[in-house]
Every structure is written in structure tokens, then in C-alpha cells.
Amino acid sequence: MGMAVTAACHLRSADAGPPLLELGGVTKAFQTVVANRDVSLAIRPGEIHAVLGENGAGKSTLMKMIYGVFPPDAGEMRWNGETVVLTSPAQARKLGIGMVFQHFSLFESLTVAENISLTVPGGVARLTTRIREIGQRFSLPVNPVALVHSLSVGERQRVEIIRCLLQEPRLIIMDEPTSVLPPSGIPALFDTIRELAAQGCAVLFISHKLEEIRSLCHGATVMRAGEVVATVDPRRASASELAHLMIGREIPHPKRSAPTPGRDPVLELRGLSQPSDDPFGTGLHDVDLRLYPGEIVGIAGISGNGQKELAALLSGEAVLDRGRRDLVRILGSGCGDMDASRRRDLGLAFVPEDRNGRGSVPEMTLAENALLTGHAQGMVRRGLIERSRMRAFAETCIREMGVRCTGADAEARSLSGGNLQKFIMGREIRLKPKVLVAAQPTWGVDVGAAALIRQQLIDLRDAGVGILVISEELDELFEVSDRIHVLFRGRLSPALGRAEATVSTIGDYMTGGFLSPDATEARATA
Amino acid sequence: MGTMLVFLLSGTLLAATPLLLAAMGELIVERSGILNLSIEGMMALGAVVGFATIMATGSHWLALGAGGLAGVALSVLFAGVVLLALGNQVATGIAVGILGLGLSGLIGKPYEGMTVAPMKRMPIPVLSEIPIIGPGLFNHSLLVYLAPLLAVGLWWMLRSTRVGLVIRAVGESPESAHAIGYSVLMTRFLAIMTGGFMAGLAGAFIATVSATLWSDGMIAGRGWIVVALVVFATWRVDRLVIGAYLFGLATIAELLVQGAGIRVPSQLLTSIPYIATIVAISILSMDGRKMRLNAPASLGRTYNSTA
Ligand SMILES: Nc1ncnc2c1ncn2[C@@H]1O[C@H](COP(=O)(O)OP(=O)(O)O)[C@@H](O)[C@H]1O
Ligand SMILES: [Mg+2]
Fold it and tell me: How much is the pTM?
């Protein structure tokens, strides 16, 4: 590694010395959306600098320009005091700029070492040893000969980081690196980032999670709607100050009243056991679940413990054979063998975790995506699409959920992840379901929008809908749920009421604390 | 019996070689994410240009080269439309294919029914002395031996070289390849040119080496078999080789059965090679997960580098 280890010491304070990178007046527009307007930013060697902003604030766009993915419409970029015009990522890498993308840019059908060899000189064989070395040095363990499609998101991120490090960068851009990690993976990432900074590498850290930024970063540039609203020292600012800067108002906390659940469950699982289709997945064991109208039940647990499989069995993406159809019941009728659209007809709405591909069709416009699940809302008459109604429905979702996009004709893939999530949530809520199953409803969504989504969930509950929320974020579950289960290794814990559900009990359940002694051999290895 | 076996073996190699050549080209193209359905037309154009060249010069090698270049010329058109004008790959491929077929008929008019001398054979010392196998497998023109060697080279290239890696990466996700700084357009352009050359070469081989005559429509659907072979081989070179030779074998077996006067409806007989090849390769590729691993994820999708 060619990082200036000796120079690092006096640069650590990150307040001295000339900037490594300076942006002045950078502007970029996509059609009618101005993603960045007159943005200025400076970062010094060894500094961990946050770029903070809501979804759609323009953070990713700015980072892509720094990395040469596309040029700005106007503005200037200085590297070590010299003006540079980047026309390609290769040129940025040559300068010493590396990037860890928000949406990973790894190739699934290639091995880790092959992927890395695409951007780092040196043969696959030599890189294999260097990957192991770097992995050890920065505690980023990963198997260089594994095919990427078999890796977890955390491992993929490590691969991206290692790929950056092998190019001996002087600036690393990390676009929402924590949004893909389970909570337990975050401290390790932060240690790696601090280690990097200590060795003189500058880090641009993108996030909308305030606590992360306050504990990690030396400086922060706050963006709102494409513009810089402030540059602050996040160590000295409080979380609420930062949030205020970021969304321009106080964070609303959802208002909730006591639930008044009905008597007959709207969704039931009766001792459901089912192996996973995915050879790397987790099967479900004897899952019992009852969801009543007018309540919100949360499913906590670290992803990979059967969440995906549970969601698939509920949505109808995975079906049971006819004989076992009664193990899954919606509004009292056995529906385990029904496909997704027949379950929707029964009154189920579903928000999948994977918004691109499952929750939406990336190549279709928002209006067309609205039609996909909302066709029963008067958008289709005698088999023909009612274009004006379809557009009106999509426009309502966009307006009420505050989705930042070019309009109902924007392709789903042009939206940032959180914005698309807002749209999908809005669409499903407006279908007037009787049961709503939402997996990670606010994943990658900023605080302002997350609060809005949670409030809408609670309002929907008060209207008598039964809601199941599968989430990794405990704060979210505590905020909305009336009862919380924990999913661990495919087994569902007993429900905890709001009073019993504390971080420590849930944490205990998350490592198998609810299992009877004979089932705990699993726990010993947890 | 002996002569029949020799005929079976040498006929199989001769029938399989052009399929393998063109299919290797198409495999490269598809691995880069482009679906080129104009193979039939490219082969036809390569065939007629090869035939015209040999009539003018008498050289088989010039004929094969010229056939390849004719395929490249048609590929430039195809590449221009799908890469720059962002035309739909399926529609463009079919249109360019029809153009190639039409051109071949036009250029071939004066040659209809003419024949040329066969290409010089290169018996392999010692091996060609073995009874039956020798004359069957080791007494051919150079390209017949070269094709399987090229396949080994292609397999190695895709597996272990940087060029192969880039082609696979571009085929899986052009967006990511662009994001890390590879030129998607250039990679795909070169892949399409290679595919066009191989298709033209295969066409010229059929006209000047295996059939040694010109008749309009002589490619007779083999271009489509090439496209099918690539898919059924799940974009794997080893399976492509098996599929190509299997198809060659079935073609010859059909001739033998017909020659022996066994009474089977001829339509059924002619369809046997297609059915046999498809069944065999489907059985080889039953593992759906492996299939997904090899399939170029962006195949056939229009990619706009400026968006
Ligand atoms: N390729 C694109 N085409 C059209 N609009 C885009 C494109 N990329 C981003 N945008 C729009 O630009 C705005 C900023 O997006 P982005 O930079 O991804 O935000 P952030 O990363 O802060 O969430 C959003 O409104 C988004 O919809
Ligand atoms: Mg972003």
C-alpha cells in the first residue's frame, strides 16, 4: 500500500493542510430534475467527511461526478489544488480516487479475484494473495476464489472496499455503506474506515443516519434538494440539529394510540415448516403466527434468519402444495397454494424488501408500475388500460409520499432507492388492503420519509388493517409495533408486548434465547 | 461397412465444422450481451462471396478470408444499428439477416449450379494410416482440425484471460462495466465483428470446402441451428463442441438412413438432427442454477451508455 503512513500523524486532526479535493459551483441536471445546484465541498487528507442528506438530495449524483461516471453541467473540481476535468472512472482511479458504490458494481458470475482484476492490474493469481493480505490488514475477511453470487451483502461490500484499497487510493468514496449491512456488521466497517483515515486516506462517507455520522466523521456537508445547506462539525452538532438541517424541519415522531384489535385473525400461520428454495437460504421451522385486524405485529431479527422465506410464503411467491394450504390463512381461508395475485384478491398487500425487480419493474414508468398491483382500482376497464386513472393514481402516490422524481412517466430505475421505496409503500397503502405485509418498509429511506411511512402504517392500523412488519431496525419496530416476534434460524419466538419488548429481551431472542434447551444446540454456535 | 463408417466419421466432421465455427463466433457475441439473429444471412453472404472469390482466384484460402470479411461487413451494419442507433436487437438481427440472404441470392445468380475443385486435404502423418479412423478423422483440410483447437482456445480465453473476463463482465452488466471504466460499446463492437467473421467464414467453408458448389439457399437454416446451439449449450464452449458434432453426426446418419432405403417419412428424417441435438443438450443443461450462472444477464437488452 502506498498510503502515506508517516504523513498521517500530523494530518489526523483533519483541520490542517490544504484540501485534497475541492469542488466549486458544481451543477448537474437530469432532464427537469436539478440533482445538484452550485455545490461546493472540500476534504483534506486523512479526513472522514460526511455528505448528509435525505433520499434524492443528490448525494449519489455528486459522488458519481467526483468519480468521473458523468461530467457536471457546470462547476469546477480541484485535486491537490489543480483543476481537473474527469471524463471517466479510469481517470479518477489514476488520480487516486476509489469508490464503493451504493448499488454494488460486482459481477455475480465472476469470482472475487476476477472481479477485482477487472479494475486492478496484476493477474488473478497474484491478486488472490494480495486480497488475503489486505483482508487481514484491515479485518476484511473474504474468500478470493468464491463466486460473487454466493456472497452475502456484507461480504460483497468487503470485496468492493478491498477492490478500492488495492488501488492505493488517496480518497475513498463510500455511498451509503451501512445501508446494506446488518447492525452487527457496522462497527467492523467503522474500524476499517478509521484505520484508513489514520493512514492518511481521505474518506467521503455518505449516509442519512445521524448517529453514525456523529460518531465517525470529522466534517459534514449537509445537502437538501440538491443544494448544500451547511458545512458543520458533526462531533459538535446534536443529532436533532443535523436532522433539522437535513430535512429543514423537526423530525416528526409518529403519533400512536392504543390498538383496538379485532377478534378474528386476518393472517395466520399454523405450525408452518418449509425448507428454503435457495440452497443458501434458511428454512422455516414450526412457525405459528396470528395477526389481528387493527394491530401491527413486528418481526425482528437479523436478515438471513428466514425473513426472505417467510415473506415469500406470505406473499405467494412461494406456494405450498394443496394438502397443506390451511397452514397459511388470510381472513380465515386457507391460501397456502394460491399465487400472489389470488392472495391480493383476498385483500393482501405486500411490500417486498427488494424494490427493484420484486417491488417494481425497473424499466417501466411509475404509472405502469402503479398498474401492476393497482389494476383493481379502476385502472382497467373491460381489459383496457384507463391511462388517465393510472396516471392520476401514480401522481397521487408521488405527491402524498413526497417522491422526488420527474413525474409519473419517470422510469422506476431512475429513482434513488429510498424514493422508489416511498412510491411502492404509497402504492400498496392506497390499495386499501385488509392485510399488509411489509418487509423492511423504510430500508434506505431517510428520517423524514421514514417517519411519514411509519405514521401511515399506524393510521392504516387505526383504520382496521392488520399489518405485519418484517424489519431489521429495532427502533422502527419499537415505534410502530403492538407486538414483536423475533425470527432466529427459521424459528419464530413468542410475541412480546410493547411493555416487555426491550432492547435486551429482543437482543436475547435474536441469539436464540427463546428456544427450549433441547433446541439450543443451534444457539451454542450462534 | 468399412466405407460407410469412414463416410460417417468424415461426413460428421465436415458437417460440424462450419456450425462450430459460426457458433463460437455467436457465443462470443452473446457472452458480451448482444443477441445476433442475422447469422443465417451472414453465412449466406460469406458463402457467396467465398464462392465468387474462388471463381476469380482459384484460392481456397482467399475464398475463406473473403467470406469472413463479408460477414464483418454485414456486422458493421448490425453493430451500427444496435449499438449506436439503439435498435432492437431481435428486429435488427432478423432484418440484417434477410438483407444478407437477399444479397447472396443476387450476387450468386451467375454462379448457380457451378462447382469448384475441393480444398487440398492435409492427411496427418501416422494417424491417417489407421484403418477406418485414419481416413475418417485424419484426412481433412486444415480448418477441420483447426476448429476444435480454436474451441479450446476460446474456452481458455473466456476462462482465464483479461479479454474473456471483460467480455463476460460486459455481458452480465453493461452498467457496472461502464461504471468501472470499460468501454461497453467497443467491447461489444469487437465481439460482433468477430462473430460476423466467424459466420462468414463458416458460410464460405460450406460453399467452397464441404459442398464445393453454389446453389441459392444452400445454408438452409444452419444459421438458425447455430443460434439454437449456443443457447442450448448454455453459453458454454464445451457443450457447444458436443452439440456441433452431435448435429453433424445426426445429419450424416440421416443421409445414411435415407440411402439405405428405410421407409420413414422424409420430413421426420430431416427433423431428426434438430430434435436429437436439442434433446441431448437439454439433458446436459438440466441444472437450472448452473444455466443461470452462464447466461449473460444483459443478453438482448438495449444499453444506452449516455443515460
Ligand atoms: N440517471 C438519472 N436520470 C434521471 N434522474 C436521476 C438520475 N439519477 C438521479 N436522478 C434524480 O436526481 C435526484 C438525486 O438523486 P441521487 O443523487 O441518487 O440522490 P441521493 O443519493 O441523495 O439519494 C433524484 O431526484 C433522482 O431521481
Ligand atoms: Mg444515493
Answer: 0.70
